[in-house]
Amino acid sequence: MKYQSVTPGIQYTDLAQPKEFFIDFMGFKVIHEEPDFCVVQRDGVKFCLHIDEEYSKNLAPLFRIETDDIQAVWQELLAKDPTKSRIHPRFKDGPELRPWSAWEFAVGWGDHVCLVFQEWTNKDQA
């Protein structure tokens, strides 16, 4: 037996803005949808987006997505957001090499979900 993957669930007060973020900006596809719940996927990464008033007010989630080409991810998102309004201010100049040997940058909006993209320099650490 082995674990296969993790599919995080994120709570919101409505799904319009998160769906726009994940689908239009991030390039995810909806693979299941109900009025207060949907699952989005891109490659091997999935998120469950839920409507939950209480949790959405008290949790600010952060997720890390590993990639094998962080520059390609950076260029794709920069093309969709040339003003860098969705790029975390720390990374306005592009991905940074962090002390734990991973190149990283982060995206999100306001105090909502933050996705950190990372590419490990030593693939054995990933």
TrEMBL record:
InterPro entries noted in UniProt: Glyas_Bleomycin-R_OHBP_Dase (IPR029068)
Full protein name: Glyoxalase
Organism (species): Cerasicoccus arenae
